[in-house]
Amino acid sequence: MTGLITAEARQWIGREYEAQTVAVSRNDIVRFAIATGADDPVHVDAAAARRAGWADVVAPPGFVSLLAAYSQLLVPRSRLRQDGLVDEQYPPLPVNRVMVGEVDVRFHRPVVAGDEITVSKRLLDMAERTGRDGEAMVVLDFERRYVEGNGVLVAEERYAVIVR
Fold first, then answer.
1. For the whole prediction, is pTM greater than 0.70?
2. DSSP bridge pairs for 159
């Protein structure tokens, strides 16, 4: 291995990022549903959602990825690095490429318009690996939790980020 993970980077393991709360609007859900082809009426029609027992339109499962982006990736330009990444999202590693690896999401209940979802994130671990091409890389393992304002867990997400 090439020693990409420094002692300074290792100190990031266990880091809890600042939690952010996102107010979910009907418009957010409807736009996401249309953009992703989610054609169940409960995603776009409040009356259909109410008939199905919901207070308002229900987000398709992939909507949590939008909550993650809203909560941690939409920042002023001044906080972006030259490559477009948010500096404080990743440990200091001598790399210049980032991609998402495996993602595992467990849903506990759907997101509904009007929810206020708090998104928390934690860096669980990091490991240096060698890719199939022989190039060294670091795999960062993260966890996100999506909790509704009344404390109800909506979803849990474990995902890997590969940096080279």
1. yes
2. 103, 142
